[in-house]
Design brief:
Layout lengths: L1 E12 L6 H6 L7 E13 L5 E6 L5 H9 L6 E5 L4 E4 L12 H11 L4 H15 L14 H14 L4 E4 L8 H16 L3 E5 L3 H7 L2 E6 L2 E7 H13 L17 E2 L4 E10 L4 E2 L1 E3 L3 E10 L3 E2 L2 E8 L4 E6 L9 E2 L4 E9 L5 E10 L7 E14 L23 H8 L1
Parallel strand pairs: 3-7, 3-8, 5-6, 6-7, 13-21
Antiparallel strand pairs: 1-2, 1-4, 8-9, 10-21, 11-12, 11-14, 14-19, 15-18, 16-17, 16-20, 20-21
Length: 412
C-alpha cells in the first residue's frame, strides 16, 4: 500500500441552515465558513507483511487518513495504491443494521468485506466463538452494548482473511479480557506477516507489534521511523506544551511561596549535562535541576533543597545540602548563587514540577524562601510501565525444576 501527497479538507460553516423556510426567508444571507485541513501532503509506503502504526494526538488526522485509505472519504488530492483486498475496522457499528440480529449482521458484513455467502455462513460459528456472543445471537443489535458491538465487528473482520487490515483504536471500548484476545490475534497476524495499519494512542502496543510508525500532527507527517523513536517524539508532542491557560473568568491560583525574605529564589530550570535549558528530557540522560538565589541579608551556612513531584502531586524525590554534611558558607546581602542538582533521569514518562527552598541552619524550618512550581520538565520515554520511575534493570529467567515427564521426553 502506498499513499502519495494525500490532502483532505473539510468546510466548517459558521451558520447552518436547517429548514427550507430559513433558506426562503434569508436567500442572500452569507454565513461564511472555515477550512479544516485534516490531511496535508501525507506520503508513506507500507511493505507487504508489515505491521505499520499510525499515531498522533487527538485531531491529528489519523482516522481521516484511514477513512481515505478505505474509500470512505475521497481525498482532495494525492494518490493511493492498494494491492490486495482490504478489511476495515474503523468505526464502531459502521455497516451494522441495528434492527437486525447478530447472525444477519455478521453474514452481511462478511459478504461486504469480500466473502461469498457460503463462506460467510461457514465461518459464522467461528465468529460467534471468538466474540463469545452465543447467547445473544438472536438479539437485535440496538440492544447490544458498545463492548458487544466491538466483539462482533472485530470477530467478523479477522475471519475475512483480507490481504490488508485497517484497524482504528476502537478496541479501547472492549473489556480487558477481550482486548487480550485481540492482542493475541495481533500476534498471530504479525507472525503470519499479514499487512496491518494500526491506529492507536497506546505506545506500548505500537512498540510491541509494529515494525515502523507514522506520526501525524495537525494533519502533517512529522516522522516515519522505528517505533521507539516515534514513541519518544509522540510523548514530546503530548507533554512539551505549556499548561493550559485558565478559562475566561477563572482566576489562576499562584504557586505557593513562603519565607521571611532574607533570601529570594529568582528562578529555576532543567538543563542537560551541557547546561542547555530543557523543556523536555529523555529517559536515561543525565539531567540538571538548577536555581538562582539572591541573598538580601547576611546568612551563614543556609540549607538548600529541591523536591520534585509528578503531575498527580506525588513526591518523586528530594535532595538537600544537609545530607552532604559540609557547611555551605557565609553569604552577604547582594550575593547570588546558582544551585545545580545533577541526576540520572530514570523518571517515568510524564510532566514533573520542581520546588526549591532556602532555610537557616538548624532544623530547616526557619525558611528564607520557598517556591513551588519553580520549573517543570516533560520526560519522554518508550517504556511507560506505570510506576514513578523506570529504573535500569536486568530481568533474568532461570529454570529451577522441570516436570519429570517433560524431562524424560526431551532425553528420549
Amino acid at each position: 500500500m502506498t499513499a502519495i501527497g494525500l490532502e483532505k479538507t473539510f468546510v466548517l460553516p459558521h451558520e447552518k441552515v436547517h429548514t427550507f423556510k430559513e433558506r426562503a426567508l434569508h436567500p442572500f444571507r452569507r454565513s461564511g465558513s472555515d477550512a479544516l485541513y485534516a490531511l496535508r501532503d501525507v506520503s508513506f509506503a507500507v511493505e507487504h507483511g508489515e505491521f505499520f502504526g499510525i499515531v498522533g494526538r487527538n485531531g491529528s488526522g489519523k482516522s481521516t487518513l484511514l477513512k481515505c485509505l478505505a474509500g470512505i472519504y475521497g481525498a482532495d488530492a494525492g494518490e493511493i495504491y492498494i494491492n490486495g483486498r482490504l478489511s476495515t475496522f474503523i468505526e464502531l457499528g459502521v455497516g451494522f443494521n441495528m434492527e437486525l440480529a447478530a447472525r444477519d449482521n455478521a453474514i452481511l458484513n462478511a459478504i461486504m468485506l469480500g466473502l461469498t455467502r457460503a463462506e460467510a455462513e461457514e465461518r459464522y460459528q467461528r465468529i460467534l466463538d471468538f466474540s463469545e456472543l452465543h447467547e445473544f445471537e438472536d438479539l437485535k443489535l440496538k440492544n447490544y452494548s458498545s463492548g458487544m458491538l466491538v466483539r462482533l465487528a472485530f470477530s467478523v473482520m479477522i475471519q475475512v482473511n483480507a490481504d490488508i487490515l485497517l484497524i482504528d483504536e476502537v478496541l479501547a471500548v472492549g473489556d480487558a479480557a477481550f482486548q487480550q484476545k485481540c492482542y493475541d490475534e495481533f500476534t498471530r497476524l504479525r507472525d503470519e506477516r499479514r499487512t496491518v495499519l494500526f491506529v492507536t494512542h497506546d505506545m506500548a502496543s505500537v512498540q510491541r507489534f509494529c515494525d515502523r510508525a507514522l506520526l501525524l500532527e495537525r494533519g502533517r507527517p512529522v516522522m516515519i521511523d522505528a517505533t521507539e523513536r516515534v514513541a519518544s517524539r509522540y510523548f514530546e508532542l503530548n507533554f512539551n506544551k505549556q499548561a493550559a491557560a485558565p478559562a475566561e473568568g477563572e482566576i489562576e491560583a499562584p504557586p505557593a511561596r513562603r519565607g521571611d525574605g532574607s533570601a529570594e529564589i529568582l528562578g529555576g530550570w532543567f538543563a542537560n549535562e551541557r547546561g542547555e535549558r530543557l523543556d523536555g528530557a529523555s529517559q536515561g540522560a543525565r539531567t540538571l535541576l538548577c536555581a538562582r538565589v539572591r541573598f538580601h541579608d547576611d546568612v551563614r551556612d543556609p540549607h538548600f533543597g529541591f523536591t520534585v513531584i509528578d503531575g498527580d502531586h506525588h513526591l518523586v524525590f528530594a535532595a538537600s545540602s544537609v545530607w552532604q554534611g559540609t557547611p555551605t558558607g557565609r553569604f552577604g546581602a547582594g550575593d547570588e548563587v546558582t544551585l545545580r542538582l545533577a541526576f540520572e533521569n530514570w523518571l517515568a514518562p510524564g510532566r514533573y514540577f520542581a520546588a526549591a527552598s532556602v532555610a537557616r541552619q538548624g532544623s530547616g524550618q526557619d525558611v528564607l524562601d520557598y517556591r513551588e512550581q519553580l520549573a517543570s520538565v516533560v520526560v519522554s520515554g518508550t517504556r511507560p510501565g506505570g510506576g514513578l520511575v523506570d529504573l535500569p534493570h536486568d530481568l533474568r529467567i532461570e529454570r529451577t525444576a522441570r516436570r519429570p515427564d517433560v524431562a524424560a521426553a526431551e532425553r528420549a
